[in-house]
Write a structure and sequence with these properties.
mainly alpha; 3 domains; two-stranded antiparallel sheet; 6 strands; 7% strand; elongated
Length: 406
Amino acid sequence: MSQGNRYRHSTTPPDRRRGLSPIQVVTRLILLLMVVGIVSVAAALVARSLTRRATPTDGQARPLVENPALTPAEAAALSAYLALNQGALNTPAGTNPIPVLFVVEPGQNASTIADNLLAVGVIDNPTLFLRYVRYYGLDLQLEAGTFELAATQTIPEIALALTDATQEEIEIRLTEGWRREQMAAEIDSRADIPFSGADFMALTDPGAAVPPELGLSAELPAGAPLEGFLFPDTYRLSKDATAADLVTRMLATFDERVTAQMRADAIAQGLSLYEVVTLASIVEREAVVAEERPTIASVYLNRLAIDMRLEADPTVQYAMGYQPQSGEWWNLGLTQDDYTSVLSPYNTYLNDGLPPGPIASPSLSAIQAVIYPAQTHFYFFRAACDGSGRHTFAATFEEHVANACP
């Protein structure tokens, strides 16, 4: 083929196929070096900014630095990504301050942990979490353990928390059947708890605020104390926890354990949640043997159905309050005179219907006993004579009298 034919069949003009001139090569090289320089400077500035923002405010905590295992290209890409997402990085996933217990199992990698964090609602962007921990080399420092996390924490805060499974914690057991004052006394008996019983009482007194994100916030009467809704359980708190942290945890635990189905079933039988908890607190104080709770609940519900007074000893004990002679909050040695001399709206020997509110924190089984009581015709019960803690039940007063101990 002739040279002319080769030109005619080529789509590129001859002068375009010639090599770049020396001037063009130098110019392009200079431009390339300028772009690389700008990118490098930008990456350095971004990295510095990220490191400064990621450095903990606690002077004793270690500052975060770029992961030395990253290649220059990976470091630049990650720092640019984090810079573009700086707002999301430092914005919590939600407004719910109630902490959740988050478990990292041995052998779980950062990707699995990120997915689990998303599932419990404490982060909303697992990709951002993964790139953050990768940039700072935290992905290989995430530890197995149980952590307290909340949606109000940022990704940097959560990532750092997950690198330390040995954070000092406080454990406190608050028992079913206790009134608020007993819980406050337990708090004061513990030198390791950083707040006082008075702090706890102030946050649970009449008119106490309930976090609006909790379902029970709309089910408590205005101005009511939190008695009865402070769920009895064992709680683990951070060493710098506040009384508000504990109260919020207790209310959130109640909200979680008392399910929507249970509340609907209570309404179906004509009981509000507040009425359920009020009666359950009486059942809790009366029952010594757990399996008797549904039967004891049936007695009180049967009485309420015919407008018969409850005549429940624990309500009189609650009204009497602290007993200096015994150092106890519950007078277990009531006399016949006490039933009529204790003038209080809580005394169900003198007042019809339920007392004004709960008298203690009931267990979940006591609450369930009220919602799902035994079906009986009993209207009376008294302690069995064998000292077992059990009760004998009766449908009539005559039977009740006959069940008295010799």
